[in-house]
Design a protein that fits this description.
Helices cover about 40% and strands about 15% of the residues. By secondary structure, it is α+β, with helices and mostly antiparallel strands. It folds into two domains: about 80 residues, 2-Layer Sandwich (Phosphorylase Kinase, domain 1); about 160 residues, Aminoglycoside 3'-phosphotransferase, Chain: A, domain 2 (Alpha-Beta Complex), CATH 3.90.1200.10. The strands form three sheets. It has a five-stranded antiparallel beta sheet. The chain has a two-stranded antiparallel ribbon with strand order 6-9. A two-stranded antiparallel ribbon has the order 7-8. Helix 3 packs parallel to helix 7, helix 4 packs antiparallel against helix 5 and helix 6 crosses helix 8. The two termini are about 30 Å apart.
Length: about 260
């Protein structure tokens, strides 16, 4: 989220004359792409050269919604701007059992969907981990010693994963979950996908939350996941995102938030 390329409501209406747009609001908590909130839509301008990825993302969203998942729909494009449906709800704050169960049901359905699109890329492909580790070694050696094992980190390919499903990529309307920002998803391990989400949905590392998640997820999931595997994957996910945060923010403050999961 955030705004790097400004736009007015009048300009937005000119770009999308067949849609009723109102209440244009800037967002301020992002570092990559421009995002505006409208009453019924999300307006995005991607500040990256990912035109093929955007088209693939639109197909993925269409596939997910066709299976009953509460995800946005890509409804129109114009001059580099993209219009998505806006989902109802709020980012969860205090996590309860129903959040964990809703998350598990979402993942079990998503991971069961067969993707035949050849445009899906390997999730880790976009990250040059060797280069980021070299930066970390020069500038944050303490963290480098903890994270250097990522030099050989790999993910098996179970299918398409979101890969970045932190709480701020979800909304809850009552007990109904909505998930968005699939643009950086790719092929990877389902256990890793879950582990990333639990970094922010289970900050206190409650075993009861992990067990509840697995009991719910494994009822309908394509592959059963064990408690031992998920605990291991949570550590891997915490290390990877700590490294990515060191690279993005150039200071260890954000990375430190994940250190208690190692």
């Amino acid at each position: 989220m955030g705004v790097k390329t400004p736009i007015t409501l009048q300009k937005a209406q000119a770009l999308f004359p067949h849609f009723s747009l109102s209440n244009l609001q800037e967002t301020s908590d992002g570092v990559m792409d421009t995002t505006y909130l409208l009453e019924n839509y999300i307006l995005k301008h991607y500040e990256r050269n990912i035109s093929k990825t955007i088209l693939n993302d639109a197909k993925i969203l269409e596939l997910l919604t066709s299976h009953g998942l509460n995800t946005p729909k890509h409804v129109a494009s114009s001059q580099g701007w993209h219009l998505y449906t806006r989902l109802k709800g709020d980012i969860p704050k205090n996590i309860s059992y129903f959040h964990i169960q809703a998350l598990a049901r979402f993942f079990s359905t998503m991971h069961s969907i067969k993707h035949t699109n050849s445009q899906n890329k390997y999730f880790l492909q976009k990250y040059k981990l060797s280069n980021i580790l070299s930066y970390c070694k020069k500038n944050h050696y303490f963290y480098y010693k903890k994270l250097q094992s990522l030099q050989h980190f790999q993910l098996k390919n179970d299918g398409f994963i979101h890969g970045d499903l932190f709480k701020d990529n979800t909304l809850f309307h009552g007990e109904k979950i909505a998930v968005f920002d699939f643009i950086d998803g790719g092929l990877g391990a389902f256990s890793f996908d879950i582990a990333v989400a639990l970094l922010s949905f289970n900050t206190n590392k409650r075993r009861s939350y992990i067990k509840l998640f697995l009991n719910t997820y494994n009822q309908n999931a394509p592959h059963k996941i064990t408690f031992t595997l998920l605990e291991k994957e949570i550590k891997n996910a915490a290390k990877l995102y700590a490294l990515l945060r060191l690279d993005k923010y150039k200071n260890p403050k954000k990375a430190k938030e994940l250190a208690n999961f190692w």
